[in-house]
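Re-running the complex after MR caught last week's input typo. The corrected sequence lines follow. Everything else is unchanged.
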Amino acid sequence: MQNLGNFKLPHFFNYPPYFTLQPVRDTREKQIQLWKDLILDYCRTQKIFVIALEEEFPLFSNPVIERSLTHESRDAFLSALVSEGRAEWMDKGHRKCLILWHRIQDWADILLQFAKDNGLEDGVVTIEEIRTGIESQGTELHGIDRTILNRALKLLEQKGKLVVFKGTSADDEGVKFSL
Amino acid sequence: MAQNCLPPVLLTGSGRPVLLPNEIECFFLSSVDLLCEDNEPNANLFPHLKSGLLTLTTHRLIWLSDSPSASAFSVPLATISHIFSHKKSLKSVFASPRVRFQVSLSPEGTVSASGSRSVVATVVIRGKGDCDAFLAKFWENWRGRAWEEAESVSGSGSGLGSNVAPAASSGGFYSSDGTVRMVGVSGILRKQQEMWESTDRSLHEAFQDLNALMSKAKEMVMLAEKMRTQLLSGSSSQANTTGDEQMGSKEEMQELLLSVGIISPVTKESAGALYHQQLSRQLADFVKVPLERAGGIINLIDIYCLFNRARGTELISPDDLLQACSLWEKFDVPVVLRKFDSGVMVIQTKSHSDEQVISKIKILATKPDALRSGISASDAAKTLGVAPAMAKEHLMSAESKGVLCRDISPDGFRFYINLFLEFDRDDKYSKKRFGVTEQVPSDLLDEVLAIGAQVRGSKGSYPGA
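Corrected-run output:
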C-alpha cells in the first residue's frame, strides 16, 4: 500500500468506486463514513487545518488508479464533516473548509493543560509564543491555525479562565491565564 | 336444465378463443345474450347464454362469457340455414336490437350443417354496438362460406378483369381491336379523350390491385406456411449434403416465415371499443415465445417491433401497445409490464425473479478480473445474454440492492462488487466477512487491491510510495 508522505493510506484508497459518490443510500452512508475518518486522520497527522476545495488536495485524487473526486463529492464529504461538528465552512460559497479534528472545546482543554504544564497558571504568554514557541514544541498546539486558536481562547475567556489583551502592535496579542 | 347443442370453444391462456386455421375475427359485440326466444319447438336444446362477448369470425359465431370462469360456445356459420333480416318497427326502437337466425340441428340434438331439425336463435345486443353493421358483416361472412376452402380461394379473384370490358366499348367510334381512324381536329380530340380514359382506367386498376392484394393476404399466409413445411421436409432430407451455413440461412428463413403469422390480427375496425382489451389478450398470447427466447424479460421496444412484424399490414401505434400492456393488470395473464427506475419499460413473465439475475451478476463481478477493473454493461450483456441497455438496468437494480457500486471515470461507467460494507476505518476489512463477498477468498481481495494498484501505477506514483 502506498504512503502519502509519512501517512499510510488505507487499502480502499485503491478501490475505484471509493472516488465516485454512490447513489444508493446504505452504500453512500458507509462511503461518507470512510471518507470522514480518512480526512480527519490525514489532517491530524499532517497538521492540516484548512482544505480549499478548488485547490489540489492529496487525498482527493489517486493518480495510481487515475481517479479523483468531483467538486460535488468533495463538497458532500466535507459537508458531512460540518454537520457532525468536525469541520466548518469558512465562507458561504463552500470554497474553504476549516477541519476540526479536535473540537473547539477539546482545543480549549489542551490549551489549559499546556498552561498547567508550563507553570502559566497566572502567567502571561503571547499568542505567537503558543503557536511557535519553544514551550509548545512537540505538543499539538505547535503550528495551530490562528482561527482555531482564537476560537478556543474566546471560549476560555467567556469562562473567565483567561484574558486576551492587545499588545503594542496589531498582531501582537497576549494572553493572561487566571486558573 | 336445457341441453346444450353448441360445441364448446377452447381458450388461450389470456382468455381468447383458439381460432381454426385461416379463421379471421371480423366483429366484436359486448354485452350480448345468445338464446332461443319464445315457443320454438326445439328451444330446450339451445342454451340460454346471458351477457357475454360475441365474436363474429369468418367461420363461426363465438360467444364468450363475461364471468371469470370463462366459458365459450360457438355456432359454426356452416350450420346456419337462414339469417332473418332486421325488422324496423316502432317497438324495435326501444327494445334492445336483435338479430335472429336459424340453425340446423342433427337428430342427436347438436348443431350440424345437414340437420333435419332446426331452431331459431336470437342475438340480443344489450350493450352499445352497431347492430346494422354486425348484421351486414354476418351476412357477408355467411355468404362468403370461408369454411369451404376451395370455393373461397377461387372466388376471391373473380372481381379482377370485369371492369375492363365497359371501358373498351364506351366509344362508338372505336373499332373492336381498339384502333381508331384519326382525322383532323376531331381526331386530336378523340386522341385526348382516349388518353384520359386510359389514365382513368389505369388508376382504377391500380386501386383494384390494392384491393386484390388485401383479399389475397390470406393466400399469401398460406403460401408462407407451405414454403415453411417444404423447407422443413427439405432440410431433413438434405441434411447430409448441405453445409452448416446453408442450414443456418434456412433456419433464418423459417423464422422469418413463422413471424409472418398472426392470421387474425385484432384491429380497431373489427373490435371497436373492445379494441384495447382484445389487443391486450392477443399480445399476452404473442409474447410467450419471444419472452422465452429472451430469458423471461424483454424490452417493450423489441416487442413492439416483433408484434408489428407479425401483424403485417395492420400495424399498431406505440401508444396502443402501451395501453394494451397496462391492461394486463386487469386480466389473469402470465406476463406483466414493468417499469425500471430509469423509466425503461419491459415485459416479463410473472415467474421471472430478479434474484436469479442478481446471483449471476454477483458471480460475474467477483471474478478476479472484475474485482480488479469492474464490469461494464456490455460485459454483463454477454454473460446474461441480453441487450446492453437491458443489462444496464439489471446492473442498476443490483446496485440499488447494495450488491454493486459504481465507478464513473474518464474510462466510462463501470460497476464493482460492493466492498464498502467490508471496509472499516482500521483497514482490516478482510477480517469481517459477511454479505456479498462470502465466496471471495480474503487473500485474493488483498492481492487484487494491491495488484490493481501496481498494474495501473505505471503512470504516476506518490512521493515515498
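None of the earlier attempt is carried over here. Residues 3-99 of chain A form a domain with the Arc Repressor Mutant, subunit A fold (CATH 1.10.10.570). Chain A has two domains: 3-99, 104-177.
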